Amino acid sequence: MKAIICRGFGAISELDYADMPDPVAADDGVVVRAAAIGVNFPDGLLVQGLYQLQPGFPFVPGMEMAGVVESVGASVTGFRPGDRVVALGTLGGYAEKMAAPAGSVIALPDSMPYADACALLCAWGTAHHALRQRARLEPGETLVVLGAAGSTGIAAIQIGKAMGARVVAVASSEDKRQACLKAGADAVLPYDDLRDAIRQATGGKGADVVFDPVGGSAFDAASRAMARNGRLLVIGFASGEIPKFPVNLALLKEYAVVGVFWGGFTRAEPEVFADNMAELFAWHGQGRIRPLIDGEYRLADAASVLDRVLGRGAIGKPILLP
C-alpha cells in the first residue's frame, strides 16, 4: 500500500510518499481501507518532533481514518468486512489502510459522509470534551472561540450553539470571520485590541468560557477579559508561543484556567468518550452540527496540506483521499 512515511524528525517537506507492507489485523483489531483521512494540527507537530508522542522510526502519522473494514482479528465480533466505520489510532492514518483496535472503531450510519466522520473524531471530539466535561458550558453563557476558523474552532462554534451558548468567534481575516458566521457564530471579532473587544462584545461582563487553541498574545488578551466564575480552556498553541499566566488574575477575578488533552481523556475515560461520540453522531443526524470541510486532497500531497494547517491557512477540516 501507499503511505506517508516519517523516517526521522525534521521538516514536513522530508515526509516520504512510498510503498510499505499492508497492515495485519491484531487478534482484537481490524484493518480499515481508507475512503477519507483526517488531517490535524498535532500531526504536523509530531513529524517535527514537537509533540508529546515520540514514536520510533519509521512511522506513519495520522490519527483518524474513515472507510470500510477489510479484515478483522479472530476475537472481534462487533465488525465484519464491508462495514462502514471510522477508526481512531495513535499512528498510521496517512495510508491507504490502517490497523486499529476494535475498541477504537465506530460504526457509521449510511447517511454520514466519510469526511464528516473524520472531522467528528479529533477536531470535534476535542471541542466537545472541552465544552461538555472541562468547561461544563451552560445555556445562556457566552463562549469566546479563538482560532475560530480552524477545524476545532468551527467545531467549538457549532457545539457551543448546540449546547445553548452565545458564541463570539475570533479569527484573523474577513474570509475566516465570514466562515465563522456561516458556521453559526453570533458575533465575530478580529484579534486587534482583543481584550477590549471581548469586553465590549459581552456588555462589559467578560467571557464565561474561552476556547483557546492559539496561545501566545491571544491567550494573554483573553486572560484579562474573563467573567467571574469563567473558564479559560487551554487547548493548544497554534501560534507557536506557550504563554505564561499571571496567577493573580485568576485570584482577583475568580476564574479557572482549565487544561484540555483529548487524547489522554479518550484513554482514561473510554466510556465517557463513547457517550460523547454518540451525542455528536446524534446531533449530526439531526442536522444540528455539520463539519466544515476545508478541502479534499490527494494522500500524496499530505506534506503541503500539513504546511497549510500549520500556517493556519485552513478553514475547517482538511481531508486526504487515498
TrEMBL record:
Pfam families: ADH_N, ADH_zinc_N. SMART domains: PKS_ER. GO terms for molecular function: oxidoreductase activity. Transmembrane segments: none annotated. Residues 10-320 form the Enoyl reductase (ER) domain. InterPro entries: ADH-like_C, ADH-like_N, ER, GroES-like_sf, NAD(P)-bd_dom_sf, Zn-ADH-like_protein. This is NADPH:quinone reductase-like Zn-dependent oxidoreductase.
